Fold these 2 entries.
Entry 1:
Amino acid sequence: MKKLAYFTSLILFYSIAFLLLFVMVFSMLSYFEYKFGIQIPFVEVIENRAKVHVPLLGLRINVPFNYGILIMWSAMLYYAIYFYAFKNFLKVFIEKKIFETKPLKRLRFFMILNLVPLVYIIVFTASFLVRGVRIRLEDDYFIVLAHLAIAFLIYLYLDVLKKGKHIQEENDLTI
Amino acid sequence: MPIVVNLDVMLAKRKMKSKELAEIIGITTANLSILKSGKAKAIRFSTLEAICKALDCQPADILEYIED
């Protein structure tokens, strides 16, 4: 079961990494179609934005030609790293010795990654407040809440792992 | 730690090498080194028994309490 979870996360990571790389490359190329009229496959330019068609999945990703694309790319990069860390997090369970420094570092990294959206939402909310735009509880807030819940669970697990590591060290030094 | 391991003293008295003792009692030389250096957190009764048997001594000859 643990191995199944790990291999699922492995497939998930590579699929998402490939998808994000595809969207990233074609969103960059779409600019050439927009600016120079060069025909790029999987790309459709509509006024000031483009649509990237993802084959097989049938997805149509909107690509804005403004600063919004930077937010989109950073979110994509974040999720690529996130799923990589998630894969490493599950790897902890299939290793023979889990009460060691390496799994602890992996877990801590995954926990920090889950806290990153909090920074994003604070900046996002602050920008709305500064511009005087009314804040609406949209998907973004719920995603951040989900990330925070995951971070909290990992924090608890991290604590168990720390205590386990201490016991492991004591056991290793019992001759 | 106030508990001092006098294994070196006993080894010298019995003119035995650490490697030899490690082989007799069935632990690695690395673990014996941890024990000798006082870095060990605990010692199993079985290990203590094996050391006492190999060195023909009492636990008190190996372990000593010195107040800090």
Note: Residues 1-67 of chain A form one domain.
Entry 2:
Amino acid sequence: MIPRPDPSQETLVLNMGPQHPSTHGVLRVVLRLDGEYVLEAHPVIGYGHRMHELMGEVRTSSGFYANVGRMDYGGALSFGHGHVLAVEKLAGIEVPPRAEYIRVITTEMNRIASHLLWFGAFLLDLGAFTPILYSFDDREFILDLLEHVTGARLTFSYHRIGGVARDLDDKFIEGTRVFLRRMRERLDVYDKLVTGNVIFRKRAEGVGVIDKDTVLKYGATGPVARGSGLAYDIRRVEPYSVYPDLEFEIPTATEGDSFARYRVRLAEIEQCLRIVEQALDRLPDGPVQAKVPKKVKLGPGDAYQAVEAARGELDYYLVGDGSDVPYRMKIRPPSFSNLSLLGEVCQGVLLSDLVTIMGSLDLVIPEIDR
Amino acid sequence: MSNALPPDLIRLVVSLAVVVGFAFANAAVLVLVERKVCGHIQRRPGPFEVGPHGLLQTAIDGLKLMGKQILVPDNADTKLFRLAPILSFVPPIAALIVVPFAKVLQVRDLDIGVLFILSLAAVNVLAILVAGWSSANKYSLFGAIRAVAQNVAYEIPLLLSLLVVVMWVGSFRMSDIVAAQDGFWFVFTPMGFVAFLIYFVTGLAETNRAPFDLPEAESELTAGFHTEYAGMGFGLFFLGEYTNMLLMAAIATTCFLGGWNGPWFLAVSGTGVVATLIQLCWFLVKVYGIILVMVWIRWTFPRVRFDQLLNFCWKVLIPISMANLVATAVVAKLVPLG
């Protein structure tokens, strides 16, 4: 129930959002406050609902593909990757290995960009204005590289059913190698600037502790689950694409607080760099696009594909009836489940902590609203 | 000439005009400095379009603010809503009249100079409370509540750290405090140094500067107590904030950094025009040095949480400043100044 003003109680109902600096988009959180303490926090969603799933049921797969990047503007390539994998599974299309490697390289670069965006926004929520410009400096580097190969900077629309739109060229590969070296140095800078800062530690440590049971109860995934000690990463538990061939670790932390989620994400950037490095070394030769019929017939049957997006587990479920338009499409985005635990975790915290917790969940609202 | 104006009145009017002019000029310069320093800290050039190197940006912004309509929210208490910005802007300017910019550049050398400044600075919290209350906005109200709790708590260590100096000098008079530091600045004594640090931290909190900018914490309270203010209403709060910063730095300079005294090898203590200009330069160098540090801190640190802020004050700053005061009393008794 959305909290309503109650004259019999000495509490205040505060409507935070949908236009508020720290709700990152159009999330609305209705709070019941006692002084600065949050008694109830009730997220209200749907302000950015655009019927993406329905659109998926009236368009051909390649026609719908442009939509998926619009759901998660931070990590558009993960969403694209999941979609084309699901369609290829249902249509029985084999993807050339080079294309699959390119997909992994670009997706992981996008994941770094997404985590950098989160890094800046999270610290902005804590009142530190400068880190976002440092992280955007590095994000800019990635976006320039991705723009060079995909032609876009935010909603890339780079995948094609059966491959990718364009092959990688030497400029991208060299630029990426430069970036790998640069980013490792920059991570040290981030550590010096932020991780050790005593005010930051006091604001993040022990704030918003999410235990394992809560994570399982609400189905939270991604860095939120890994920050609570669950080594749950789709790239390892339900391997897809070429991830089984690549060596990387799944960073976890056991504390479950905002600082743990912060550490997990920074450690993930390091692992992403490792993945990109290996994938570049092993990049096979060959075509980047499989032979695909003009009309991609789906089914009859169904296909389910889970991928690890920047914010957690992303699932596509497609039912085909033999035509080129899916009969049913269901998307399970990560932020929806990650947001759902907000009400439970935020009971009794301070208003400032609520902002910290919301920031540490790394919410992307269009992806929740779909 | 029998019908001439009394010289005291002329002096008063001229000095008032100069002080107000200085406060406005200071705000204009500080806004630009803040933007430029912040830009360079964030690896970007800052404003660059209006005038050479964006020098005219602040002037244009001032014009823009003046051109805007002053909106009063429907449910607001109109009188209080309009009074609050003035209440925030006037006291720091009035307090500037006891600040000794040079040996002869001081409007009034009151014998209760330090007390005068502190009492006027305390009005600021009233302005914020009035603004937050009259806006009829929950975020504004939260900002006001935070401001009151914060300023009331931080005024205690502020006062205690300044009392160290007063106890040493034995006078509230600003000129006596400066004279006592001829070649021997209080910041270079152990007690003076501790008092200076405490004063600086509490000064940041008193002027609502980051990391203690809780009354206007953007990510939590949108714009805090001035959420509903538009145009020059907001502009006056802004002017008041920057004048408060100036005042805080001026007190720090006067009480701990030797006021208009230069370093011992460059000290000029005359009252001539040249000597006054040199003294003024020293004073301004110190004042703006302190302000630059405040700007640097703002663009580097995250914001503290409300309970941490108050805990820090009551559990750390006040006990330390108390102990410091007692130590000063003992030492001042044993080693008389001069």
Note: The two ends of chain A are 22 Å apart (CA to CA).
